Amino acid sequence: MKQAGAVGSASYEGAQQLSWLARLIIAHTPEEVATGVAGLVRAHPDCLAAEVLWGSGALEYVQQHSPGLVAAADAPWLDAARASSQPLWHADGRRAAVRLCEQPEPVLLVVRTAHPASGLFEALQEPLTLAGQLLQRALEWVELRDSHEQLERSENLQRALFAISDLAGSERDMPDMLRGIHAIVSTLMYAENMFIVTRNAGENTVRFLYYVDVMDPAIPGDGQDMPMSAIEHTLTWYVMRDGNARMGDAEELRNQAPGPVAVIGPDSHDWLGVPMLRDGHVGGALVVQSYQQNIGFSEEDLALLQFVGSHILTALERKQGKDELERQVQQRTVQLAEANRGLQMEVIERQRAEHLQAALFRIAEMATADIDQDAFYRRVHGVVGELLNAENFFIALLSDDRQKLTFPYSVDAVLAPPAERPLGRGLSEYVLRQGTELRLDNAQIEELERQGEIAPGRMGSPAMCWLGVPLVVGDEVIGLVTVQSYRPDVVYGAADQELLSFAASQIANSLSRRRSAETLRRAYGELEQRVEERTLALRKEIIERERMQDQLRHQVMHDSLTGLPNRSYLRDRIDRVLATMRHHPDQCCALLYLDVDRFKIINDSLGHLAGDEVLKEVANRLAACVRHPDLVARLAGDEFAILLEQEELPPAATTVAQRVLDALGPPMLVAGKELQVTASVGIAMGDDHYATADEMLRDADIALYRAKELGRKRFAMFDETLAKNVVDVLAMEGELRQALQHDQFEPYFQPICALDGSDRVLGYEALIRWNHPRRGVLVPGDFLKIAEDSGLVEAIDWRMFELSCRELLRHGDGEAFMTINVSALHLRHADFDRRLVQLLETTGLPPSRLVVEVTEGALLDNPEHVRATLDRLRLIGVGAALDDFGTGYSSLSYLHSLPLRILKIDRAFVHELDKGANTSGTTVVAAILALARALNIQVIAEGIETPIQRGALIAMGCEMGQGYLLGRPAPIARPSAAIGGAA
Questions:
Q1: H or E element that contains 178
Q2: End-to-end CA distance of the chain
Q3: At what angle do helices 720-741 and 693-709 cross, to 10 degrees?
Q4: Is-contact 363 502, C-beta < 8 A?
Q5: What is the pLDDT of residues 182-215, one digit of tens each?
Q6: Pairing verdict, β 246-248 and 226-227
Q7: Dihedral pair phi/psi, residue 63, rounded to 5°
Q8: Tell me: the pLDDT tens digits for 630-667?
């Protein structure tokens, strides 16, 4: 290579070298210098590839720039280039290597050129000479830094070993000495969990003399002597038995043990135990262990612990001669020392609290101080900066017309906001719209962008962490105060949010008095300070770990779909509110428990993705219905909850509940369809009788169930009656199961009579009754709904079908038919008709005497399936009756195609016949009779209770009827008589 003063190749641009030199000057590490050198050489026209190498391989960059430039076979050529002061060409004529610097280790530049014997090195001689000098300095600096760190570690180890030696030879009492040794060991290695075991070889006993374990604080044997066999086959037993140290995780330790391994207490991630030896004899063991995945032990830790073990054993033997009185004095001294440390910690905590209180008092005092607005902002900023990181801080206010956002005070290290700007969709506007505090990291801010809540770009450089609190005067949001961080080592937590909220309230109070009279000013400042590299790296690591913990805590306590707090978060919040209410009875709260009506239909019809969109929209609308400190949470599926902490409850609770129903009223556009979503709400009022959040959630859920029973799209308030009803439902479910087991159900038969003047009994309708052992005879309305909800109704129905058939065959007229009520639940089963035929065969009842009654709702459930089932029953002789005809909306569309034998006119039309002829009821009944005659279907009029109704039906030619006038339901062995018979 030529001397440094040589002129470079004229083909290479001087301006480009000058730019490269500027970048090289600001490079600090060898890697940065090497990257600049390689980049300069690659820019030369003759260069095809270039890399900088030192040590045993090539420098690796963010991406591999020149794959295949050097290989293992090039080692002799590279070694020769390191020994040469001139460029050394490879045998292929296209690659060359030149030494950039020789000390503290040789560094090579390897180049592949487009032409053999290229003049590239002559063209770049001067910059490469300068680069070699800078690279040598950078390597020397790295070597010096590494040597300094190694020396520092050696000094620390030497000081610790001297301290252990001095401590072992001191006259300090045993517990204090052991704690001191533990503290010293903790400075050299991870020793949060450590214990010392002594062994009495003569008596074959052991004692856990010192024991500290964060996962299992109970000292084995309570610190007293116990037989060696009590810890047989444990890792500590193996260490003391064979005198060999052991180290590793659970699997490695099991492989090291010559026999089975017994585990006492929780299993650790890494374990290290060494024997304490005296003249080759084992006097005990010293053990440390780690429960954390990222903390383990090394061979250096093993050697250190063996050294410590020998000193501990020496100290223990020296202390053996102490009498019992001295141990008691030492124990008392330890207790006093512990108490003193506790008092010291209490003093420190009190001083911290006093400092915090003083700072907050200064903020409150400034709100009424006689200072101008700019001074007020500066002082508030100064006080806030004492309590949390406020390097980037601004106050924003809405203009009088609420169309612009002004920034009277702003300090930002990256990009300060303008003096004013129109309202847009930034983070500041989002806080103003929501009216609540907002604390976000960069990922959460990007999520708001994806949801469309804020505009992309965020009006400037994106912050790593952003905390904004609205300024509220009365019920009006007038602006916000914000701090933000552009560094990963500055993350705001809940305490910072609470502090800034207090400051915001004081700022808002002051602005309400000052805003109209004071002019706005902006102040800019840069408060960035650079610390030493090692301290900064450690701080970044700690802050990053705290940030990850905060992020994990947020993910655990929030719903991933809606971003709302989840059930765990809500339960914790309710428990805290209830605890506060126990100390402050004047405070109150309310819990609104709601779920989306018929949400399963949305999922089944449009898919789960559309269902998720509905849930997110519902979450947004619910969040807009409350204000701080009220909480909206998603519990599970389509269930949400709102916790209210207001003074005027329950009026405020019902107001919010109605507001929720109104907010969900407007249609939602989901998956190209306009959905009308409704919800049902249950309300539980918090008071002193609630001990836990689960009790309050239970009562709110009971009220929600009541709201659904009342028809959905409404709210219901919990009271003790609802709680009693729920308990009654649970009790009745158990009683229903007992009733099935003990055959307490009985069929009652209501006669169906001929309307020809004779009133002879033509058939019966079988109706279920429950002979309750305590409450007497119960009608279906008392228990049927609970039977349906508990899934017992089908079993009860089949038992009733069997009993009805047997009773009719045993006591009924040989020609009388019987109708049984069949719900849509039965008709959904494909084998219903087959089971019914088997039942008839078992009981011996002719199929022609059985008629199944179905409702119009059952027809709507699956018309084709129901029609096929009724056709199969008709073929074997079982008839079909359509119950409550005329009350639905679909019967006429199916009537002509269904195999019906009987129509039953609903009692609502029969009751209209009392009003006389030419009424709407008379017209409907006449039309039904005419339709039935045309289709050759028999008709039964239900609910005949007066002679007028009976006469009108006879006059219109109705064939059959049933009702209390003709006979009440009763067991068939003693039925109530029809008209003309016994009363």
A1: helix 174-188
A2: 132
A3: 80
A4: yes
A5: 888 888 788 889 999 988 888 889 988 888 988 8
A6: unpaired
A7: -135, 150
A8: 899 998 888 999 999 876 777 888 889 999 999 988 99
